[in-house]
């Protein structure tokens, strides 16, 4: 293990790595730091190419102690696919999507939860709790079951029913509450403070971020050790965006890539866009969004604990935060499915809509290599009924 310490993302204060932590004394996320000079001498492109194509191949840049039991469910490398007809429809040369719906429990939450539960198990945690709008709940429940831990999940009432039932199927204690995810998170935090469970909420412990950053490692290797011109990412809590930005920095410092960086675009729904509002105002932190509402439940996060880290990555990269309308989210899902056979989740539809809006605003070029993130399997979400009824006794092929 090459971990040296944990570091407050706001103040830089150091914390020891060999014990469980939540937020820093400043109330901000802790970041895992590594001896990158040692890592540089321990890995190479050739060595990585010989390893199984999964998230665990990046072990020198992951926080797990040598004796830790890895809590795994088959976290395979996810494919990057071309949306050729969707690109052509918008006059673009190329459009790529990284399909995270291929992971266990059908979403990119598997990466973060595999890492967080591995560390929780190592530290002797017995019960884990989170708030969730859907996919994180299923992931924490599955990995907790795998590790032999108990899990508690609190969902806002608008959480899709299939997500609630899936989470319960893994044996979690599931509660559906009359509030938003940050309000559910406040109850989780209160119980953690009373010693009833460990709070594994987004960025309130250090290791979900480390699992999520493997998306950045993967995409760079898949693109021939190059970064794309731009990345469009569905942004609620923003763990993946923050994690990828960290990943690119680490890859450069260990000699696997150069200083080039993609422009990072944080995509939110117009009905819940606190990061967009803060970006447009030039603020460092984002105020809570009141009355949050969107079909893309995964990005319905009124207040993100890592808001300043999201905004920092977007600004440092030369990217932007963009809000998209509900109709455009739905159109994104429909178009990708019908044109390219790719059933995006609503959050994936949002990033496609965000890319289209960025094209209109001149923020990206039609000849640039752009990578979208589809964060979950589209089959996990309610789909409109578009079939028609047929009476076989009277049916004629010419009528079909």
TrEMBL record:
Names of required cofactors: pyridoxal 5'-phosphate
EC number(s) reported in the record: 4.2.3.1
Keyword Lyase: yes
Record keywords: Lyase, Pyridoxal phosphate
Alphabetical GO biological process terms: isoleucine biosynthetic process; L-serine catabolic process; L-threonine catabolic process
SUPFAM superfamilies: Tryptophan synthase beta subunit-like PLP-dependent enzymes
Annotated Tryptophan synthase beta chain-like PALP domain residues: 72-375
Highest taxon in the source lineage: Bacteria
Gene Ontology terms, MF aspect: L-serine ammonia-lyase activity; pyridoxal phosphate binding; threonine deaminase activity; threonine synthase activity
Pfam families: PALP (PF00291)
Identification of the protein by name: Threonine synthase
